[in-house]
Amino acid sequence: MTFNEGLQIDQDRVSSGGGPGMGGGIALGGGALGIIALIATLLLGGDPGSILGQFTGADSQQQGTAQTPDHCKTGADANKYVDCRVVLTVQSLDAVWGTELPKQTRTAYVEPKVRLFSGVINTGCGRASSAVGPFYCPADQTAYFDVSFFQELKDRFGSTGGPLAQEYVVAHEFGHHIQNLLGDLNRAQRDPQGPESGAVRTELQADCYAGVWAYWADKLPAPGSNTPFLEKLTRDNIRDALSAASAVGDDHIQKSSGARVNPEAWTHGSSEQRQKWFLAGYQTGQVSSCDTYSARDLDNPPTLKL
């Protein structure tokens, strides 16, 4: 268990299925399946835009939906059901960033929308399928999750599948929303791939922001309560988060797809980098620890103490 059981879940915070009409924009933080398809295309010399079109402009007539999580009522439900875990993680992220973002950056926190879905969904960034994995769309300021991704992360890519591994994924997508609020998100589009690219630095910063959340989530009390959202995190909990960060490293995904490791095709960073930047945020709880754009050596975050 990671969530304190008596916490109440806000059933209005997260919606399921449906979505706004198609529009422009780039979705950030696509999961392992989408990354594999992109890497394979790049290795074969193809046009990555053609693959993105499969995810954001698919001609599918199916509009998948997920059940509205009516069974999600307390922290005990979040410890039992993965969809409830996503919802309560969202509430925890709102509480942490609502307090720490204005305090640390003088930027007001605006809650992103969150949707659970399965199959395909129309978003402000176009039509997306579950194959892309969890993602954040800046055009509609919405984070999208198909909870089946968490099982895929465990079965195909070796994550432990523990609760904090799943919560890390949610926190990473919220990290992109924080970047959007701070005006940094567009840096990924200026320099879209390569080991030192803006895309990699953007993804590593989102990992670091996930670590910032984890630092505060077992310390700050939930709104209207004296109890933090998370129970005191243990080393095993942190190992769960690190296993998820490692599973979605570009080098690990390239190896899993049978390709050679090619840093020039990276968009998210190596497994080791993703783990280290998560830890940099977790050890300090400070947004200032996550300045990947100024980092001279992405393999060694300046604030990380091992």
Automatic annotation (TrEMBL):
Domain of life: Bacteria
Keyword Transmembrane helix: yes
Assigned GO CC terms: membrane
Subcellular location: Membrane
Alphabetically ordered keywords of this record: Membrane, Transmembrane, Transmembrane helix
Record carries keyword Transmembrane helix: yes
Membrane topology: Single-pass membrane protein
SUPFAM superfamilies: Metalloproteases ('zincins'), catalytic domain (SSF55486)
Primary location class: membrane
Transmembrane segments: 22-44
Protein name as catalogued: Neutral zinc metallopeptidase
